[in-house]
């Protein structure tokens, strides 16, 4: 028997409580029973997003919510600024171009974060730019962007600030209304502790005002239609009923832990992973650290693609490797969502053993011990 461990930044493990909630018999989505569950989940999401605005729940991946933000708020030919610091920043630009928007690319070296001064300079240079599109965490590089600081720049202008928080919401605090984020997006398969299949999007009054002026040619991702249905505690089309069951349970679990404790756990687990990988001589890919995941460069003699494959197929531990120019060079270790202290110990132990198998000199226990030193204070024995 080989036990499997999922330590990728998405999908992430799903708690047993959530799995059991989703295992309940499927009910019809046009019933008072479903409306009650749906409304409870939608209301709890508002607390997580720190917003008074409605949260639209879509049956799609997070990319569906990204597309809906673009399709509903901009007309063909309008200009948008895309902060491109990795694969998912690039995705923003590709979506915008698919809807015939004029994209101004702010290309950032992988491993670096957006500089708010550069964003301001780009907006000053072109007053026709209607929006800034960015990630909270750029998952491909593990970089955390300065969302609060950029929101300070956009909220005083006629420029929407749209944040892909798929690897952010539920990981660390993003108070949407207080910061002035106009549209905030999330997906189900990361910090939300659910399987893939749901996306969440919140628009503030500025964003809805734009959406009301734009003729939306997108049939399925029509946010005005979804907002109207939300008032009746339902969706425009058939929702993922079982995932909504799971969503309500996952949000209840986070409330029971409390959001400050959830965020603090992510911080502590991240510190443990960085201590462990540092003790093994693995260098971080960025100094702009996210609470969601840690990326490290592997030794030059180690083939990263094979390394990740051996961990998955031989050891039963799934991490994420690198993409594009970082393919075969890095490993990404998740610590968001349904992860605890001993998951990080397993992560360090498996990396030590894999490095040894690849002939890299390793002192067994170095990474594990360094992680434990960070995590020991997380436990109070009564």
Structural description of this entry:
The chain has 382 residues and is an alpha/beta fold. The protein folds into two domains: 16-256, Aspartate Aminotransferase, domain 2 (3-Layer(aba) Sandwich), CATH 3.40.640; 258-378, Aspartate Aminotransferase, domain 1, CATH 3.90.1150. 43% of the residues lie in helices and 15% in strands. The strands form four sheets. A seven-stranded mixed β-sheet has the order 2-10-9-8-5-3-4, sandwiched between helices. Strand 6 (137-138) and strand 7 (143-144) form a beta hairpin. It is globular, with a radius of gyration of 21 Å.
Question: Strand percentage, roughly?
Answer: 15-25%
Kindly state the mean pLDDT as a whole number? 97
- Proportion of residues in helical segments: 40-55%
Tally of distinct domains: 2
End-to-end span in angstroms? 36 Å
Q: Assign the CATH class of the largest domain.
A: Alpha Beta
Spans of 5+ residues with little confidence (pLDDT < 50)? none
Tell me, briefly, the overall form.
globular
Question: What's the alpha carbon Rg, rounded to whole Å?
Answer: 21 Å
Largest sheet: 7 strands, mixed
The CATH topology name of the largest domain reads Aspartate Aminotransferase, domain 2
Which structural class do the helices and strands define? alpha/beta
**CATH H level, superfamily name of the largest domain:** Type I PLP-dependent aspartate aminotransferase-like (Major domain)
In sequence order, what are the helices and strands, one letter per element? EHHEHEHEHEEEHEHEEHHHHEHEEEHH
Q: Which architecture of the largest domain would the CATH scheme give at its second level? A: 3-Layer(aba) Sandwich
Oligomer status:
single chain
| Tally of individual helices | 14
Strand arrangement within the widest β-sheet reads: 2-10-9-8-5-3-4
Number of strands: 14
